[in-house]
Amino acid sequence: MESRLSARLLDGTFRLIHIPLSLYPNFLQPILQVLLPQDDDDSVAVEVEGLSFDNKHGFLNISITPVECSVVCHSSWVKNVFEPVIKRLPPNLSKAVSISKDSYLILSVISAGMDAGSRVMELTSPLALAGVPIFFITTYYSDFILVPSKDRQTVVQVLLARNFEFDKDESAYVSPSTMSHVRGKSHGSEPPSTPPPSNVTELQARTFELLKKRNVVPYISPCLSLVQCSGRRSSQVIDYGRRPTLIRQVSGNGHRRSWLDNVDTKLYTSLISVLAKQPRFLSITLAQEDPPSLLLDKEYIDVFGDSIVGDTEGDLVPIFLDLVNLPLEATGIVSGVAGRLVSEIGIEDTSINSELSYLSTARAGAVILSSQQSMKALEILKPLLSKEEVQK
Fold first, then answer.
1. E strand segments, the chain
2. What is the rounded distance in angstroms from the CA atom of residue 110 to the CA atom of residue 123?
3. Which among 55, 220, 267, 392 has the fewest CB atoms less than 10 Å away?
């Protein structure tokens, strides 16, 4: 059976927010405000631009890592929830918080018959070769790619050149895995100052040259082990006979039904409990079509109990790349790093193709592998990014 990738462009524009860990307590309230589903009353009429009629986020990612706290949310939430908090901070502190200057579009990608490592490469390499900077987020169900709004035409042309076909709604695409390697040219954005690489080998070489130049050192956080899991599907939580509609519904006590009637309150209570502790690692992704997806420090599994599903016995270890010294428009990081690991480790152990995933945050990246594979990956990456190698 032929492997296929289907992708859909989500509605709206999004921005990335970098919050230093030292300022996390100042932003706990706005983080909870965007995390919790909203009622459609007048008090939140402005913010809900990024929500569906049943109060679901089109997309939201909140990640707390050893490097930073990072938020990806709809531009309206950035303006109306986060910016007021930043403005109230003393000037020396507000400067430490950053919001991406450019807005981003999000591609939601669902694969069939393709392993994780191949998926990362198939999705990121064509865009990197076209000079499009991306952020990549792997979740329990889907992959999400953030691309600059100004590069929309380039992205569409690259997808078309790779044999993507538009679906009926003109925002979905289907691509065979046997995509050609034709590069798209941008008509909607300025050309990059340096021509994009001509092939994957050159792409990887440039990636590691840039990382080395900017003193990016890969590392593993001691004793940090993760699991990739999910909240339960709505059918496991609520009765479909009570699914929300466009009409305001009334509960048995005469009051309009709340968002609490349509979500797993145990899951959200657990999330609030963990977020209040400023966890060492937690990444939450909400997307309209999927149940909540979590990349979770194993230390907190018991807090969630039966509100999560998935391989809770897993042992995933992230390799962190602190990219604070790189501009957001840097290209090829995901494809270059992931591609090198897949090509080198895959020679001896093909299981890396099914295990590798990636999490982009505002100022960092994390390659996520099994504990055994992570140690092998670190042994490969460290010499490539060592300054000593340059002097040889």
1. 4-9, 14-19, 59-64, 69-74, 98-99, 104-112, 135-138, 143-148, 165-166, 172-176, 219-220, 226-231, 282-287, 290-297, 308-310, 316-322, 357-360, 364-370
2. 11
3. 392
Structure tokens at 144: 């999400």
Measured between alpha carbons, how far is 276 from 253 in angstroms, rounded to an integer?
32
CB 99 within 8 A of CB 78: yes
Nearest Cα neighbor of 138 from 283, 3, 18, 279 is 283
Per-residue pLDDT of the chain (392 residues; tens, 9 = 90+): 455 667 788 889 999 999 999 999 999 999 999 998 665 554 445 455 767 666 778 899 999 999 999 999 999 999 999 999 999 999 999 999 999 999 999 998 876 556 777 778 778 888 899 999 999 999 998 889 999 999 988 887 887 777 665 454 544 555 554 333 333 344 444 444 577 788 889 999 999 999 999 999 999 999 999 999 999 876 555 443 343 443 444 555 555 556 667 788 999 999 999 999 999 999 999 998 889 999 999 999 999 999 999 989 889 999 999 999 999 889 899 999 998 998 888 756 666 656 789 999 999 999 999 998 999 999 999 999 987 644 44
Give the number of other CB atoms < 10 A from CB of residue 386. Answer: 13
